[in-house]
Amino acid sequence: MDCSIIKVINAAEKLKLYRERPDIFVREVFGVTPDPKQDEILRAFPHSPRIAMKASKGCGKTCTEAWLAWNFLLTRPHPKIAATSISADNLSDCLWTEMSHWQSKSQLLREKFIWTKTRIFAKDHPETWWMSARTWSKSGDKGQQANTLAGLHADYIMFILDESGGIPEAVMASAEAALSSCKEGHLLQGGNPTHLEGPLYRACTTEKNLWTVIEMTGDPDDPNRSARVDINWARSQIEKYGKDNPWVLVNVFGKFPPSSFNALIGPDLLKEATLRKYREGEFNAYPKILGIDVARFGDDSSIIFPRQGFQCYTPMQYRGVDGTEGAGLTIQKWNTWGADACFIDNSGGFGASWLDNLIRLGKSPIGIAFNSKASDPQYFNKRAEMAFLLVDWIKRGGWVPDIPELVQSLTQTTYTFKGEQLLLEPKEDVKLKLGFSPDHMDALMLTFAMPVEKQVQDSMFTPKTIHQIEYNPFSRDKATGDDTGAYIYDPRRL
Q1: How big is the chain by its Cα radius of gyration, in Å?
Q2: Cα within 13 Å of Cα(150), Cβ side
Q3: Which residues have CB under 8 Å from 34's CB, separation 6+?
């Protein structure tokens, strides 16, 4: 038999094998060994038209999507693949980058396909053999979103929804409609379980019988955990934030948060916090902090909120005061109480006059913009970070005064995920929902803006910093691993 014919036969047999066994394709074409969960997904693909990957952070789901996309492009005649994600940047930075990375590992794929920033296509059949990157508009209506994955007509079609937890239902609906008339169609979606709605949530709950659902977790105590997730990183996140933290539930355990997850804090927990009692002077060794939320509009209040350790004090509420009056009232409290730090909301410049007047009077207040960058990357901005530090403080023993405006603000403010970051409900939306501005909550949140050192007077009556034991809301007992809620030394105060 002619050698060229033998080569054709061997190539056809190899492609048939790769089509039936994507796991072998990955091993032979890319020279890598999938981990057990990835292997499970690869083996399931040929006979599972709908696969949903519910995954923690770093499990290799996007990598698996890229492997299957290349497998589909190589082993089906004239296939078409459409891929989308929660944003154009995410699609470009994640899935599309993975596609480029794995093509670079294979001479065969480099010879057969052209990669561009929005399209991958076969050199010999650019019009009928391709994969495209498609984006959708968050501001568009359902009809516009439904067009994202529309227009595919072929015998072999594949849709990939990366980070599908945040993708609108209309986008998924357009994909499902396109699969109704093809010879072989696949829906592959994967994401972190950030939303209690949307395609990923439905696939894992109400439509679980329609999908092959594969769970990928970074839980350090789960024997079936993904080996790709660094176990030391996973343990450090649990130790730092706690097992019930929504970010940890999603990104470490790969679990949907409980149904009430979008409430900043539950009413029962907050009620318990209002009933706590501490002895007079119990936290005298710890810094005294003022948080000030400055009124933005005529119906808003300016709030001065004092906090020391786990103890809050009754806040002062003022209406219709200007920057000069506000600074005078702050000075009075600052001096009589002996505050160590003062944080003022300077979002949009509303607190600028208070700040300027306090500085003119010899004080050193710190302006905080709520929309500024958080210190911790799990939070979308400073406002979200301060809110969750406040909630953590409450859970660990913080006393909250039973003020109706404060209680309602804390229990009715919600949060969500923006990508992998926690994002708090906008203040304007909270105000519309409550019928009043959450000024008390914002003022108390500001007491968690930055670490604070306690100041004492030396023999010459000059303020002097002392190293003190200070509350760290992310600390746990190092010996037992228990969440003690104790005050510990914070090296940021050196």
Answers
A1: 28
A2: 12
A3: 23, 26, 27, 42, 64, 67
Nearest to 357 by CA among 448, 294, 446: 294
The dihedral of CA 339, 387, 93, 248: what is its sign? positive
Tokens for 219, please give them: 């839980």
Three-state SS at 465: strand
Terminal Cα-to-Cα distance of the chain (whole angstroms): 81
What does the alpha-carbon distance between residue 54 and residue 176 come to, in Å, rounded to a whole number?
A: 19
What whole-number distance in Å separates Cα of residue 455 and Cα of residue 465?
5
- Tell me the domain boundaries of the chain: 17-251, 267-468
- Residues with Cβ within 8 Å of residue 229, at least 6 apart in sequence: 56, 57, 58, 59, 217, 218, 252
Q: State the average pLDDT over residues 225-234.
A: 90
Which residues, in sequence order, are bridge partners of residue 51?
188, 212
DSSP 96: I
Q: Average the pLDDT over 237-245 and give the result.
A: 80
Among 84, 253, 221, CA closest to 163? 84
Q: Which amino acid is at 167?
A: I
Output the six-digit token pair for 44: 């399931």
Nearest one of 338, 301, 259, 329 to 441, comparing CA atoms: 301
Q: How many of the other CB atoms lie within 10 Å of CB of 239? A: 16
CB neighbourhood size of 111 (10 A): 8
C-alpha 184/C-alpha 156 separation (Å) is 5
Residue 279 tokens read as 């002895």
pLDDT band at 240 (very low <50, low <70, confident <90, very high): confident
Query: What secondary structure letter does DSSP report for 1?
Result: -
The pLDDT tens digits of the residues spanning 33-85 come to: 999 999 999 999 999 999 999 999 889 999 999 999 999 999 999 999 999 88
Listed in sequence order, the DSSP H helices in 314-377 are 323-337, 352-360
Compute the C-alpha angle 11/13/18, nearest 5°.
95
Q: How confident is the model at residue 487 (pLDDT cuts 50, 70, 90)?
A: very low
CATH class of 267-468: alpha beta
Length of the chain: 494
Q: Which class in CATH covers the domain with range 17-251?
A: alpha beta
Query: Distance between CA 190 and CA 98 in Å, rounded?
Result: 15
Q: Distance between CA 311 and CA 281 in Å, rounded?
A: 10
Tell me how far apart the alpha carbons of residues 370 and 133 are, in angstroms, rounded to a whole number.
35
Q: Pick from 414, 409, 411: which is nearest to 431 by CA?
A: 409
Give the Cα separation of 440 and 175 in Å (integer).
Answer: 47
User: Mind giving me the DSSP string for 225-273?
Assistant: --TTS-HHHHHHHHHHH-TT-HHHHHHTS--PPPTTTTBSS-HHHHHHH
3-state secondary structure of 302: strand
Q: What percent of the chain has pLDDT over 90?
A: 38
What is the torsional sign of CA 201, 220, 245, 492? negative
